[in-house]
Specification:
- This protein is an alpha/beta fold.
- The protein contains seven helices and 28 strands.
- The strands form eight sheets. It has a six-stranded mixed β-sheet with strand order 7-4-6-5-9-8, with no helix packed on it. A six-stranded mixed β-sheet has the order 16-13-17-21-20-18, with helices on both faces.
- Helix 3 packs parallel to helix 6.
- The radius of gyration is 30 Å and the shape is elongated.
C-alpha cells in the first residue's frame, strides 16, 4: 500500500486508471445512442445516396450543353419534363434537353449536372434559358458518395453525436452497439454531515458532495446512484461499500472533515476481500488526499471531503475515468478538452513536484484582451468554483506562472 505521504504523480495515477477495462457493449436504441461510444464497427448495408440526386432546385441537364453560356449569350434547352421528388425519372435526356428537378430529386439518365434555378429563365413551359456554364457533377450527389454498400460507416470508438446518429438513421439503423454507461455509486461520509433538507446545528454542515458528484457523473455520461450519508463508523462504511460493489461499476466515496477519516476509508477497503489500494495520495492541488482502490476490477475512489477539492479531482481525473469506462479514446488527454486561451491577470505561485489547478474567471482587459483572473479561496469555499469559468493547470515542473503569460483555460462544461 502507498503511504499517504508517498504520493503518486498525476501521470502515475492516470496509468493506474487506464488499466481498468472499459465496460462491455450493449445495444441501444438509435435515439439513445447520442453521446455514447460505438463499441463495434458499423458497415453500410446499402449505398448512400441510393441514386444520383440533385442538391439544388433547378434543371437537370448535360453539362456540355451549357458550355460558354452567359447572361448575354445564354444556352437554350428544351425542357421535356418536370419531376417531383417522389417520382423516379422514366426518360433519358438527349443533347439539348433538360428537366425540372427539386432538391433531393433523382437525376434522369443522360444528365450529369444541375443548374440552379436562379441562373435560368423559363421562356415557356418547354424552353429554358441557361445563363451560366456548369461542369459535370455540379450540384449532384452521386450514388454512394456518402458511403458504399459494405463500406465502413463508423469505426468502433466513435463518439456518437447528432450528426453520426443522422448518418445511421439514413441507413435504417435502429439498434446501435455502444459501451455501457457506468453505474456510479456516490457515498458521503462524516459525522458532521446532514441531509440537504435538514437545518444544521453548530458543528454540522449540509452534504454538498453527494449533489455535486452526482451532477459531475451525469455530465460525464455515467448514471449516479446516491447511497446516502454514512457516519464515521468502520463497519457501517464497509457494509455500504460491499452493498455498492454488488451493482455499481464504480464507487465515489467522499470523506468528512473529522480527524482520521482517511484511515477510516482505507480500513473499510482493507476489510473487503480482494481489495487492493492502488493510490493513497496524489501530487495534485487541490485534491492531494485521493485514494483509489481496485476491488474485483471495479474502481473505488476515496475523494477529499473538502467540496472544492472533491470537484477539482473529479474535473481533472474523475470525469475522464468515467468516460474511459465508456470506451472514449484518450479521455485524459487535456489537449482534446475544451479550452480557451487567455492572458493571466497576475502572478500565481506554485510548489514544484505537484500539479496545481487554479480557478479563474474571464474578464476583458483594457486593451480588449481576454484575461484569466485567479480566484483565491480555500478548498472548503464553494464560491471560488461558482465564480470560475475554468481551471489553469500549473505543471509540476514549474514554480508558478507570470502575469501577462498566455495560458490555456480548461473550461467548465456549460
Amino acid at each position: 500500500m502507498q503511504g499517504f505521504f508517498e504520493v503518486l504523480a498525476v501521470e502515475q495515477v492516470i496509468r493506474l486508471l487506464t488499466a481498468f477495462s472499459p465496460l462491455p457493449p450493449e445495444q441501444a436504441d438509435l435515439l439513445e445512442s447520442d453521446g455514447r461510444i460505438l463499441a463495434e464497427d458499423i458497415t453500410a448495408k446499402e449505398d448512400l445516396p441510393l441514386a444520383d440526386r440533385s442538391a439544388m432546385d433547378g434543371y437537370a441537364l448535360r453539362a456540355a450543353d451549357t458550355f460558354g453560356a452567359t447572361e448575354s449569350n445564354p444556352s437554350y434547352l428544351h425542357c421535356v419534363k418536370n419531376f417531383d421528388i417522389q417520382t423516379p425519372p422514366d426518360i433519358e435526356l438527349q443533347p439539348g434537353q433538360c428537366a425540372g428537378i427539386v432538391t433531393g430529386g433523382i437525376l434522369p439518365a443522360g444528365a450529369d449536372a444541375v443548374v440552379m434555378v436562379e441562373y435560368t429563365y423559363a421562356m415557356s413551359e418547354s424552353m429554358v434559358e441557361i445563363r451560366v456554364p456548369v461542369a459535370p457533377g455540379t450540384h449532384v450527389m452521386l450514388r454512394g458518395e456518402d458511403v458504399r454498400a459494405g463500406g465502413l460507416l463508423l469505426p468502433a470508438g466513435t463518439l456518437l453525436r447528432p450528426q453520426e446518429v443522422g448518418l445511421m438513421a439514413a441507413l435504417g439503423t435502429l439498434r446501435v452497439p455502444v459501451h455501457k454507461r457506468p453505474l456510479v455509486a456516490v457515498i458521503s461520509t462524516g459525522d458532521e454531515l446532514v441531509d440537504v433538507s435538514v437545518t444544521p446545528r453548530a458543528g454540522q454542515v449540509r452534504d454538498v458532495n453527494s449533489s455535486t458528484l452526482a451532477c459531475l457523473v451525469r455530465r460525464a455520461g455515467g448514471t449516479p446512484v446516491l447511497l446516502g450519508l454514512i457516519p464515521d463508523e468502520l463497519h457501517t462504511l464497509s457494509a455500504r461499500l460491499r452493498e455498492a460493489l454488488e451493482t455499481a461499476d464504480c464507487i465515489l466515496l467522499s470523506g468528512g472533515s473529522s480527524v482520521g477519516v482517511r484511515d477510516l476509508t482505507v480500513g473499510a477497503l482493507q476489510a473487503i476481500d480482494g481489495a487492493r489500494i492502488l493510490c493513497h495520495g496524489v501530487a495534485l492541488s487541490p485534491g492531494k488526499p485521493l485514494i483509489i482502490a481496485d476491488v474485483g476490477g471495479k474502481a473505488v475512489w476515496g475523494l477529499p471531503g473538502q467540496v472544492t477539492s472533491a470537484q477539482v479531482v473529479m474535473l481533472v481525473l474523475g470525469q475522464a475515468f468515467i468516460r474511459h469506462l465508456q470506451g472514449w479514446k484518450n479521455p485524459f488527454d487535456q489537449a482534446l478538452w475544451p479550452k480557451q486561451k487567455a492572458v493571466l491577470a497576475r502572478n500565481i505561485a506554485s510548489r514544484q513536484g505537484r500539479e496545481d489547478y487554479v480557478r479563474v474567471r474571464f474578464e476583458q482587459g483594457e486593451a480588449g484582451e481576454l484575461l484569466a483572473v485567479p480566484i483565491p479561496g480555500m478548498s472548503g469555499l464553494l464560491r471560488s468554483l461558482t465564480g470560475a469559468h475554468g481551471l489553469v493547470r500549473i505543471p509540476a515542473s514549474l514554480e508558478g506562472l507570470e502575469t501577462r503569460q498566455q495560458v490555456d483555460v480548461l473550461l467548465f462544461e456549460p
